[in-house]
Amino acid sequence: MEESEVVGNGRDGELRALGHDLRTPLAVINGYAQLLSSEDLSPEQRVRACQLILEKCEELNGVIRRLLEPAEAAVPVAVGIEQTA
């Protein structure tokens, strides 16, 4: 197997894992949002559904942060230096 194939296969695996990391919380959010549109839930069940949606949103934010960290680390940051007396 050539090196480019190995690299390509590694990227495919990473993309599949990323897809899973994004789709799983989205499926939970979608399911609980649909439940919230139902009038059959008790107030306690509605509160719990909202909590789970918020938890999964935080999980997605974490995935996005991890994705962006390498890009943010590679971007040079301008630092202003002032001359003092």
The helix/strand class is mainly alpha
CATH architecture type: Orthogonal Bundle
Helix coverage percent: over 70%
Average pLDDT score: 83
The total of helices stands at 2
Shape: flat
Largest sheet, if any?
A: none
The CATH topology turns out to be: Helix Hairpins
CATH superfamily: Signal transduction histidine kinase, dimerisation/phosphotransfer (DHp) domain
What amount of the residues lies in strands? Answer: under 5%
Question: What is the terminal-to-terminal distance?
Answer: 63 Å
Q: H/E order of the elements? A: HH
Identify the CATH class. Answer: Mainly Alpha
Q: Count of DSSP E strands? A: 0
Q: Work out the oligomeric state of the chains in this entry.
A: single chain
Number of domains: 1
Uncertain ranges: none
What radius of gyration results from the CA coordinates?
21 Å
Summarize the structure.
The protein has 85 residues and is mainly α.
Structure report:
With 85 residues, the protein is mainly α. It has a single domain, classed as Helix Hairpins. It is 78% helix and 0% strand. Helix 1 (3-36) packs antiparallel against helix 2. The longest helix is centred in the N-terminal third of the chain and has 34 residues, at 3-36. It is flat and about 65 Å long. The chain starts with a helix and ends in an 11-residue tail after the last helix. The mean pLDDT is 83.
